[in-house]
Structure formats: structure tokens, C-alpha cells
């Protein structure tokens, strides 16, 4: 793969991992979340093939899950 960009390879493909990131099922849908310092989950990404899921306000990125 050839990338035509002024960025370095390390900026495009960082080696560090986000250890707080988890993949869970919430209300029957797979989502990617970050665990906050308070122990709650913040939605990062909805992983779905159904376009209707993305119209649901419950799956807005940045939302804190109850």
C-alpha cells in the first residue's frame, strides 16, 4: 500500500494501544467504548451493518452509557 502524505509512518500507524478501549454488546449491538476514570463507558464507535442503528440517538459517539 502506498500512502501519499506528508505525515510520518509513526503518525499514521501509532504503536501505542489504548488500553481503556473495549468492544462490548449494548442493547443487542456491538460497540467500541472507552472506559472512563469513573469506571463508566463512553461510546467511541457503533459497529453495525444496519443503517437504522446509526439514526438512533442512543448510539451517538461520545455518549456516556448508563
TrEMBL record:
The lineage of its organism: Bacteria, Bacillati, Bacillota, Bacilli, Bacillales. InterPro entries: YlzJ. This is YlzJ-like family protein. Pfam families: YlzJ.
Amino acid at each position: 500500500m502506498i500512502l501519499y502524505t506528508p505525515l510520518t509512518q509513526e503518525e499514521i500507524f501509532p504503536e501505542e494501544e489504548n488500553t481503556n478501549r473495549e468492544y462490548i454488546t449494548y442493547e443487542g449491538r456491538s460497540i467500541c467504548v472507552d472506559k472512563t476514570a469513573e469506571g463508566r463507558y463512553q461510546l467511541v464507535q457503533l459497529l453495525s451493518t444496519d443503517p437504522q442503528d446509526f439514526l438512533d440517538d442512543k448510539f451517538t459517539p461520545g455518549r456516556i452509557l448508563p
